[in-house]
Every structure is written in C-alpha cells, then in structure tokens.
Write a structure and sequence with these properties.
It is a single chain. By secondary structure, the chain is α/β, with parallel strands linked by helices. The chain has a single domain, classed as D-tyrosyl-trna(Tyr) Deacylase, Chain: A (3-Layer(bba) Sandwich), CATH 3.50.80.10. The chain has three helices and eight strands; from the N terminus they run βββαβββαββα. Strands 1, 2, 3, 6, 7 and 8 form a six-stranded mixed beta sheet that branches. Strands 4-5 form a two-stranded antiparallel sheet. Helix 2 links the parallel strand 6 and strand 7. The protein starts with a strand and ends with a helix. The relative contact order is 0.30.
Length: about 150
C-alpha cells in the first residue's frame, strides 16, 4: 500500500464537471494498493496518516496532527502509484491490485480514517477524476507499507 500525503489548504475532486469531494483544510491523499496488501496494513497506514505531525504549532514547528488542527481528508484512489517504468517508456501496472479488490481495500481504508472522527471525502473509484488543490508548505510525505511494517 502506498500513500502520498499532501498537506492542503483546499482540495476538490471533479468528475463529469461536478465536484464530488471537497475539503477546506487538511490532507489530500493519493492511495494505491498492491496484490499483497492486508487489512493490518490498511489499519496501520490509516493510524500513521492520522498520527503524522506535519502541521505547524505556535512555534512554527511541524508538531501537530490532523486531529490537533481539526482537519479534513480528501482521499483519492490512485493505482498508478504502482507503475513500473523500469523497461521502456510505457509504464506497467501489473503490481497494482485488481480493480474489485482494490476498491474494497480503498473503502476499508476510508472507513478506518473515519473511525478516528475525521471528516473524509473521496473521489469516484475508477473514474476519470480531476483533482485541484493548494499544497501548503509544500508538504508532501510518501508512505509505503513495505517500509513501515
């Protein structure tokens, strides 16, 4: 499981010219799954996202979590996080989890995030989405279950 965590001032997801998910302050997440991902990894990474201290405190240090700042999350499914471009110029996506299983994992991940009391918006799984956001900092953190467990 891979997650790109981006601290956002605002973020929105547009599908067919309609905003389907939007936040005003918090994280914009890109979330991808591979064949070997488990529910334990989903729980672990959700807890990691919630616990990340990447918001500034009164001294300007990155010392506050999304819970501390009463932030929101826009989570977007992103199978291309498992692109393999080692050979040639056209990426291979064989490491990305199969569509139906990945959708279930994504929904479980969103439920895990919500269990912490955080408002979570999403895109539309598998849709052609347009994402617009303002990255604050810019602050971008990469999480990979292989490196964290």
């Amino acid at each position: 499981m891979r997650i790109v965590v981006q601290r956002a001032k605002t973020a929105k997801c547009i599908v067919h010219n309609e905003i389907i998910g939007q936040i005003d302050h918090g994280y914009m997440l890109l979330v991808g799954f591979t064949h070997t991902d488990t529910m334990d990894q989903i729980r672990h990474l959700a807890k990691k996202v919630i616990g990340l201290r990447i918001f500034e405190d009164e001294m300007g240090k990155l010392n506050r979590s999304i819970l501390d700042v009463h932030g929101e999350i826009l989570a977007i499914s992103q199978f291309t996080l498992y692109a393999d471009s080692k050979k040639g110029n056209r990426p291979s996506f064989v490491d990305a989890m199969q569509f139906d299983k990945a959708k279930q994992c994504f929904l479980q991940f969103v439920d895990e995030l919500k269990s912490y009391g955080i408002p979570v918006e999403t895109g539309e799984f598998g849709a052609d989405m347009q994402i617009a956001f303002t990255n604050v900092g810019p602050t971008t953190i990469l999480l990979d279950s292989k490196e964290l467990m």
